[in-house]
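Dear colleague,

As promised, here are the two records you asked about, laid out in our usual form so they can be pasted straight into your sheet.

NAME FIELD: protein one
SEQUENCE, THEN STRUCTURE:
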Amino acid sequence: MATDIDLHLGRRLRRRRRLLGLTQQQLAVQIGIRFQQIQKYECGANRISAARLWQLAEALESPVSYFYDGLAEAMERKETVAAGREAFSRKETLDLIQAYYQLGERPRRRLLDLAKSLHAEGEPVS
């Protein structure tokens, strides 16, 4: 099962290979493996070892750090999305949304304004 890091490295590998105009076959030949292995790296099915990552970086004329660029931000985005999903799976949240949409337009706007004003007063939102 692919981890988020494997998927990120695979996407960066594919992006760099395409940027240089190389096929999977051409890249595979350069580092002495089969093109199917490049496919597996790019989709995150196989983990890239440190030694192989070094070879790929050399063949793609990039530093090893290139493959990790943006990883921290990608992981933070994933955590934020997961937290949002968790919040919407709570019964209380679903009940609140349902009750909100049962209100007329004017009361909904007033309730939203109230919620915003409470947050603006320094109340933590969790």
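NAME FIELD: protein two
SEQUENCE, THEN STRUCTURE:
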Amino acid sequence: MDKSTIQLHPSWLKHLKEEFQKDYMLNLKKKLLELKNKKIIFYPQGDKIFNAFNLTPLNNVKVVILGQDPYHGPNQAHGLCFSVPQPVKPPPSLVNIFKELESDTGKKRNYHDGNLEHWARQGVFLLNTTLTVEKSKPLSHRDYGWSEFTDRVISLISDKLDNIVFILWGSFAQSKKQLIDSNKHLILTAPHPSPLSVHRGFFGSKPFSKTNNFLHSKQIDMVNW
């Protein structure tokens, strides 16, 4: 996973290339290679691990949505938090996100299409804080070192950019608030959209309209959710 082998958009690589030479990242690469050699399945597939970075260059970022780790079922994960490629059925958390989107904006959503690439291409950076996961084992790569890398990414966005909307759903995402400069960015928090917590305040939190109102106030193009 050195600079020559990773596929990362140049806007990100310019600032993150040194991370790939650090011990934690070299160890992470070693662990993933060991899994591959043992024929242990993990998600997403290699060319999708940095999908969020390649669909949303650093200079295009205007919104950050933080997830925890990728979906752990076959064909679900494709490197964008909460998103699934077609024709995969949207998981319950994503269905709840769509319900809130409809309630918040009045925009009808196709519940059979869970692919959020059209958000990513508009500057919505869909970042999982852990970028890989073993099949059927949620959080199995939590201690691999990914969080050190993605903490660096969050800090980079906070430091280098202005007027970014950070959407933090659930206590894990909200634990990253300390990495974000609240004086120059908008931080929106709510419970996680999973069925276990969605009724504790996720429904009715209006993250989509709040995001666009903020972007509009800063003369930044709004997101077509």
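A couple of things worth noting about protein two: The beta strands are 42-43, 63-67, 124-128, 133-134, 165-169, 186-190. The chain has a mean pLDDT of 95.

Best,
R.
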